[in-house]
Each structure stands twice: as structure tokens, then as C-alpha cells.
Amino acid sequence: MIQGVRRFHELDPEIKKRYYTRDLISGFFLVSNFDLYRSAAASWRDTMGCVAAPDLPPPEQLPDATRDILIEYSKQVKQLSKTILELLSEALGLEPNRLNQLGCGAGQLLLGHYYPACPEPEVTIGVTDHTDASFITILLQDQIGGLQVLHRNKWVDVQPRKGALVVNLGDLLQLVSNDKFISVSHRVVPKRIGPRISVACFLRPLIHKGDTDSPPVYGPIPELLSEENPPVYVEADVREFMRIHSSRGLDEPSPLQHFRV
Ligand SMILES: O=C(O)CCC(=O)C(=O)O
Ligand SMILES: [Fe+2]
After folding, report:
1. Is the C-beta atom of 113 inside 6 A of ligand 1?
2. For the chain, what percentages of helix, strand and coil (3-state, to nearest 5) are there?
3. Each residue of 31-52: pLDDT tens digit?
4. Residues 6 or more apart from 21 whose CB is under 8 A from it?
5. Which atom of ligand 1 lies closest to the CA of 187?
6. Ranges for the Fe2OG dioxygenase domain (predicted)?
7. How far is the CA of 112 from the centre of ligand 2 (A)?
8. Are 7 and 66 a contacting pair, CB within 8 Å?
């Protein structure tokens, strides 16, 4: 998959520009800095991607350079996401199927990032400090490194390991778990060597027009609430949640705070 993402980003710009758009919903896209002019700094990366669940775009809309592997990878990630959501349900003391039934993996967005080698890493940011809006994000990274998570107020490197995936907990999981799980702040620092390739699959509810008749609303899962554990969030319309998420700079506070009690 890493090679497939690299192949696409290293295509002739004349071919790539067919896919360049700021519409990240309708088909396969290439984008650079979706939050340009909203974040304080631009990110040192380009991103390709598409919605991968409920359905990938039709195969003929996917570029040759990445089509077959994208279809295969997305199939595998869908299976894995079911298992991870089962494990997280159990970790919360819920029925194993609870998070899958809630539709936590029903919508998926797959992104393939390309961080070029950077001549001045001291004054550049790969991607700024943020939490993901997803329930969880399944992340594949190559061996270059640069991903960091905030742990006890210190930035800690997430060392690449061959064959390993990183799973980030996102804001929507924090909301439905009523703060039992906390979404992780992370960022990517650029390197003099590169390119660095990563592939992020965001597990989200169904949010696009036509996906569902009524807007999905998510709040703290009732089984997790009690007198000692009252809800700390109100119910959130996820379209509103995502609208807030994508209309701000990635470096601004997460949409979660809008829904705190
Ligand atoms: O490139 C990475 O390792 C992280 C990407 C990321 O944080 C994101 O896409 O939200
Ligand atoms: Fe992220």
C-alpha cells in the first residue's frame, strides 16, 4: 500500500492534476493543505484519498497507479476495523458488537499522505498538532518516522515497526465513551530524508447525503452512564460535528468542546 501511495504521488503532475480538488467527498482526490489559510502554518505534505466505506468510488475512477492495492487494502482494513471495535467495546465493558452496531465503522475515509524530504525541518511542520475527529484511525506508516503523540505533556516519537499499524483514538470515541477514552493529540515532524508515506483510515459514522435518511446523532452510550458518571456531552449531530471539524484550521480546538455539557 505504501508503494501504491508513493507511485501515485510521484506521477507526472499533468496526470495528477486531473484528481486535484477540494471536494473530499465525491470521488478519488488529491489535495494539499485542506485547511490552507485557516491554520497558522501550511503542512509539508500532499494527500490522496477517497471515501472507502460504505463504498469505494467505482474502480474506473481510481488511478491505475494505486487502484488494485487500494481496493485490497480497504477490504482488509474493513475486516480489521470490525475486530478493533469489538475489542474496544469489550474494554468499555459493553457487548462486543456494541460499537459496530452503533455504526462506528460504517463510514471510512482513506488518506495516503506524502511528506517530501524537507531541507529545513527546524522551521517546518509536517502536520500540526491535532486530534482526529473519527472514532478511531488505523494508521500505516513507513520506516522514516516523524509521527509523535503527546503523552504527559511531552512529544513522544511513535517508532515505526515493520508490519505494525498504529491505532489512534479519536474525538467521536471520546464522546460516546463519555471521556473513558481520550482522543490522542498527535503531529508529524518533517525530516531531511524522505519522502515519508503514511496511510490513514478514519472510522466515522455515515455522514454524507444519501447515506442515511435521518442525521445520525451520537451521545454518551447509556450503559456507561450512572449517577456517579453523568453525561459530560450532549448528543451531537455528526454532520454538524464534521462541519465544525472541517471548517476550522487543524490547529484549532477540536469540535468536542462544542458538545460538552
Ligand atoms: O502521517 C501520519 O503519520 C499521521 C497522519 C494524521 O495524523 C492524519 O491524517 O490525521
Ligand atoms: Fe491525525
Report:
1. yes
2. 30, 25, 50
3. 987 777 677 788 899 999 999 9
4. 29, 30, 31
5. 7
6. 105-205
7. 12
8. yes
Ligand 1 near 188 CB (within 6 A): yes
The per-residue pLDDT string of the chain (261 residues; one tens digit each, 9 = 90 and over) reads 999 999 999 999 999 999 998 887 789 999 987 777 677 788 899 999 999 999 999 999 999 999 999 999 999 999 999 999 999 999 999 999 999 999 999 999 999 999 999 999 999 999 989 999 999 999 999 999 999 999 999 999 999 999 999 999 999 999 999 999 999 999 999 999 999 999 999 999 987 656 666 678 999 999 999 999 999 999 999 989 988 988 777 777 789 999 999
Count the alpha carbons within 13 Å of 15 in the hemisphere toward its beta carbon: 10
Cβ(51) – ligand 1 distance below 6 Å: no
Q: How far is the CA of 214 from the centre of ligand 1 (A)?
A: 30
Tell me the pTM: 0.95
Cβ of residue 141 lying under 6 Å from some atom of ligand 1: yes
- Tell me the CA–centroid distance for residue 226 and ligand 2, in Å: 32
Q: What is the ipTM of this complex?
A: 0.99
- Report whether residue 200 contacts ligand 1, using a CB cutoff of 6 Å: yes
If you take atom 5 of ligand 1, which residue's CA is the nearest one?
Answer: 200
Decide: helix, strand or coil at residue 8: helix
| Residue 168 Cβ < 6 Å to ligand 1 | no
Going by alpha carbons, the residue nearest to atom 10 of ligand 1 is: 132
